[in-house]
Specification:
two-stranded antiparallel sheet; alpha/beta; binds ligand PMT
Length: 357
Amino acid sequence: MTTSDPTSFSAEEYFATQPPPPTLEHDISGVRDFVARQAKEGRKVVLVTSGGTTVPLELNVVRFLDNFSAGTRGATSAEYFLKAGYAVIFMHRQFSLQPYSRHYSHSTNPFLDFLEIEPSADGTISPPAICVTRNMRQDLLEVLTAYKSVHAAETLHTMTFVTVNDYLWLLRAVTQELCVLGKKSMYYLAAAVSDFFLPRQKMSEHKIQSGKGSLHIEMDQVPKILKPMVVEWTKGEGFIVSFKLETDGQLLVPKARAALDRYGHQVVIGNDLHRRKFEVVFVSRKSLPPLPPGVEPEPLPEQELEDPISTTFVETWIRIPVPTSSPNPATNQVKEIEEDIVAELVRRHERWVEEAR
Ligand code: PMT
């Protein structure tokens, strides 16, 4: 395999040929300090990745391909992890949703709509006072209280990526910092990561001109990083949860099983694009006696990945009622599936740590 082969980049080749983002060192020193503080406090730490990565088509970028994700899954889950006592490294796509502020997203619940200018007693607005509309106060108070207490406790560390290259470099570097916590670390990979990219060496320097007819681009495959993440970066010590997004629900379980079989991590959460807010499936291996050190599990035969009553894998569905109307922005009181996803993961992580003892 060489870098001139258009379809195959190993993770090692990728990092040897693609440049790191300029702020990597600075970003990682922030993570190092954060992890050291949490280690001192004895907290578990979860890395939450969130939002979609882009693939720029030019070095002076005007055009890029994007991956679908608003960041809802990641931002919402981060809040529930914080509530459960975890410290959170929230690695998200720049300008995608973030914990707490997500409740007041400019497009679905713009905050200016529930602020009022309070007239003074004599009917003038001098000096002007701004207050929150009465029916929004309780909800805002709850969100603000949680937000302030997380800030005071310094248990949330945020960092951003834009391109798939930023994402891969950051993921590797953050993982290498977090792995000092061993089994107390969790990796919750909810970001929607590009499968194809243009190596820097093949990119046009300037804006691609449109006067030459149709555009043909050959992209290389982004290396699958879960395997090195499990085996090398975390040395098998981290509790790793990946997501599988499909639009054909029938593919969810077999694809999730295949990912577990290939990468050897702990859980794949399958979600169907249109049902993801009220239904997900946890796929994991049934407990097996540990293999001797250095022995890799045999790859499974194809039919085991499809078998409805598998002897190797177990599926757990999490469902919440499908909302019948859109949430009331004044109360924001809807059940969120991330509450149950995180509760289940916290239980499993705890059990995993206990079993290791
Ligand atoms: O933010 P929302 O709008 O709420 O949407 C949430 C979501 C649907 C995006 C989220 O729940 C989700 O499914 N995220 C993962 C989507 C995705 O990238 O799936 P995938 O099939 O491309 O990748 C599967 C897994 O492999 C991912 O966990 C990824 O971290 C990992 N991967 C991906 C690419 C790559 N080169 N190496 C990897 O290891």
